[in-house]
Amino acid sequence: MACFDLQLARLMTLPRYEPHRIQINKKRHYICDDFPNVPVGIVLPSVTTVGSTMAPVGKVMALVNWRKKVGDEEANRRTREATERGNWLHGVLEDLFNGEDIEEHLDKCSKFAPYYFSVQSFLDTIGEPVLVESAIAWYCPARQIGYSGTFDMLATMKDGSYALLDWKTSYKAKKDNQLGDYRMQLGAYAQAIEQMYDIEINQAYCAIAIYDPDTGEGEQAQIVSLDSSELVAQAGVMAQKTQDYFFQWYPGAMPFTISTDRGA
What is the pLDDT of residue 260? Predict the structure, then answer.
């Protein structure tokens, strides 16, 4: 028990890192100046950049066919709304755990409020946030590959444990074969957190808030849960995709640095 309490006490002192994002060939990358596990100035692709770029052809074609089916205008509308509602939910939850009154959020943007109510029962299982919206990176010096990203939350749970948490929104519950990216993202973030902070992540949850504004139908959030063995497996998937990304897409195939030109 004393060892566990010591681990929790250490968690509460973990530093938060501000994201420093840039675009390279329209793909998101991070400048990793401040990370203790990455050489200064190294630029790494984001988790989402690696995942989307290295997606199987079948998945890419499914997205292309969906756009053809609904039309570009409708596809763009849904994409914009997904971004808006996701940003809104993240903002509400950040304010909630900062002890702020979120009623104004719910009143001002009633069309997105059902997404909050969808995750509300899961929120009741969370004790206290440790880190929120913190940038992280994983780097392998031997292979000179790595990735970076910003995870949603690391928190203590009311059962005394701690977990990595991620928030998503959706019109409807996802089929199991549609959850691969979410699982890999959790594994990627867990691997990076463990390397950066020298702690173990043994559980992670992705809470998918569900509400269809077109029909007005919603339901309780779909919870994707990964234990330690599943996180390790997904981290391995991400490491392999990262290696493939560096070989096929990364400029120069090796990490490069960016620094400020101070002039003569």
Answer: 44
> What residue ranges do the domains of the chain occupy?
2-252
Flag residues of the chain having pLDDT under 50.
Answer: 1-4, 259-264
Q: Which two tokens stand for residue 210?
A: 């569900």
Let me know: does 113 contact 88? Beta carbons within 8 Å. Answer: no
What is the secondary structure of the chain as a DSSP string?
-HHHHHHHHHHTTPPP----EEEETTEEEEE-TT-TTS-TTBEEEBHHHHHHHT--HHHHHHHHHHHHHH-HHHHHHHHHHHHHHHHHHHHHHHHHHTT---HHHHHHTTTTHHHHHHHHHHHTTEEEEEEEEEEEEEEETTTTEEEEEEEEEEEEETTS-EEEEEEEEESSPPPGGG-HHHHHHHHHHHHHHHHHH-----EEEEEEEEEETTTTEEEEEEEEEEEHHHHHHHHHHHHHHHHHHHHHTSGGGS--B-------
**pTM of the predicted model as reported, rounded to 2 decimal places:** 0.88
Are 105 and 129 in contact by the 8 Å Cβ rule? The answer is no
Q: How far apart are CA 179 and CA 158, in angstroms?
A: 26
Architecture of the domain delimited by 2-252 = Alpha-Beta Complex (3.90)
The separation between CA 29 and the C-alpha centre of its own chain, rounded to angstroms, equals 14
